[in-house]
């Protein structure tokens, strides 16, 4: 997927952004909106001399939206966009010796004041069309696939693993990107290699596992387990590597609670669903009688009460402060 084909201006909506958020994305002077994700928005800077959208950079803006049970909730979580952006920036630094990243600037003047703290100007890359997932522990869709096939994305696993089990070694379980509202499809490593070529496939596989391993080393010092993570890579033709091939660059966000499962190490116990660091209050309330919501109804969940919003905001800040050792804000 080329940057040109991946992103079309808002005036010509793609099937993805035709389905996306109920509310129109905010107008940002000097930028044109190009894409809405579930919780993030992409804008292209407008060149001041030509009035055209710039081809080499994008503004990645994190909103305060939250998803649970495959729904975007009606209630925003205040500061969530800032917390996740600042956490991602911190991880990019921790990973800098493993892989270069797409960040150009996280500050004014490149980042407008209206989205300060929750936006980054990034290099526009030719995205590798694969969601690169690394798993250190078994849960979620990986567990479901294991129970049906004894393997995940073509990787055979030993018998007897439970929800939350530590895997014998971290595994690469890529998926193909599906439009919003559809589920991503599991792929084997061989399918990735057929799609992008063996050199890039082997590189993104090894990089995904290395990012997961570094993430777990750092998280372990803070009493946190990193069960799994999704990363996205792009190619930067303007930065050829030693062999003259485009450099592989880490894009998107990295090692945030939206892209990864963080579990408190102290309460880890295979054989049951683990406590989710960030979404547990929301899930518990939505599935409690208090919400009046029936998950199997297909109906959208109700707005969250203020105390659940506040408890969730505190968990996101706690995750940031525990992992980074910094104070948020
Ligand atoms: C890009 N996505 C999918 C926004 C991010 N550096 C880049 N260059 C070109 N394209 C992209 C990036 C980045 N990052 C990535 N779409 C375009 C990831 N989305 C998910 C929704 O929020």
Proportion of strand residues: 15-25%
Largest sheet: 5 strands, antiparallel
Low-confidence stretches: 1-6, 10-21
Provide the structure class: alpha+beta
Instruction: Give the CA-based shape.
Output: globular
Report on this structure.
By secondary structure, this protein is α+β, with helices and mostly antiparallel strands. The protein has a domain at 3-124: 2-Layer Sandwich (Phosphorylase Kinase, domain 1), CATH 3.30.200. The chain is 28% helix and 24% strand. The strands form six sheets. Strands 1-2-3-7-6 form a five-stranded antiparallel beta sheet. The radius of gyration is 20 Å and the shape is globular.
Short descriptors:
single chain; 329 residues; alpha+beta; Phosphorylase Kinase, domain 1; 5-stranded antiparallel sheet; 4-stranded antiparallel sheet; 18 strands; disordered N terminus; binds ligand Q0N
Give the SSE layout:
Elements (H helix, E strand, L loop, with lengths): L2 H4 L8 H5 L11 E6 L3 E6 L11 E6 L4 E2 L2 E2 L7 H15 L8 E3 L13 E5 L2 E2 L4 E6 L2 H10 L1 E2 L2 E2 L9 E7 L2 E2 L8 E2 L2 H8 L1 H23 L3 E8 L1 E8 L5 E5 L9 E5 L15 H7 L19 H19 L5
Antiparallel strand pairs: 1-2, 2-3, 3-7, 4-5, 6-7, 8-16, 9-12, 9-15, 10-11, 13-14, 15-18, 16-17
Helix pairs in contact: 3-8, 5-6, 7-8
This protein binds ligand Q0N.
Summarize the structure.
With 329 residues, the protein is an alpha+beta fold.
């Amino acid at each position: 997927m080329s940057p040109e084909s991946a992103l079309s201006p808002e005036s010509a909506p793609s099937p993805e952004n035709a389905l996306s958020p109920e509310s129109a994305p905010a107008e940002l002077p000097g930028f044109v909106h190009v894409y809405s994700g579930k919780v993030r928005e992409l804008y292209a800077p407008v060149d001041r001399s030509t009035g055209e959208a710039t081809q080499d950079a994008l503004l990645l803006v994190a909103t305060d939206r939250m998803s649970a049970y495959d729904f975007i909730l009606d209630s925003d979580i205040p500061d969530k966009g800032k917390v996740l952006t600042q956490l991602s920036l911190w991880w990019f630094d921790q990973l800098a010796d493993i892989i270069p990243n797409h960040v150009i600037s996280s500050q004014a003047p490149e980042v407008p004041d209206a989205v300060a703290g929750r936006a980054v100007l990034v290099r526009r890359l030719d995205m590798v069309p694969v969601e690169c997932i690394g798993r250190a522990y078994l849960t979620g869709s990986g567990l479901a696939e294991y129970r049906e096939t004894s393997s995940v994305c073509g990787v055979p696993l030993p018998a007897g693993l439970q929800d939350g089990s530590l895997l014998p070694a971290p595994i690469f379980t890529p998926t193909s990107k599906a439009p919003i509202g559809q589920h991503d499809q599991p792929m084997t490593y061989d399918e990735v290699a057929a799609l992008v070529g063996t050199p890039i496939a082997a590189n993104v596989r090894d990089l995904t596992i290395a990012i997961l391993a570094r993430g777990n080393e750092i998280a372990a010092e803070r009493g946190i387990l990193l069960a799994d993570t999704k990363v996205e890579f792009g190619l930067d033709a303007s930065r050829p590597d030693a062999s003259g091939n485009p450099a592989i660059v880490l894009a998107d966000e990295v090692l945030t609670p939206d892209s990864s499962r963080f579990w408190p190490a102290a309460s880890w116990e295979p054989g049951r669903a683990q406590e989710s660091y960030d979404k547990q209050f929301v899930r518990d309330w939505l599935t409690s009688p208090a919400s009046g919501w029936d998950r199997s109804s297909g109906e959208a969940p109700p707005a969250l009460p203020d105390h659940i919003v506040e408890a969730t905001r505190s968990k996101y800040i706690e995750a940031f402060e525990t992992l980074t050792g910094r104070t948020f804000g």
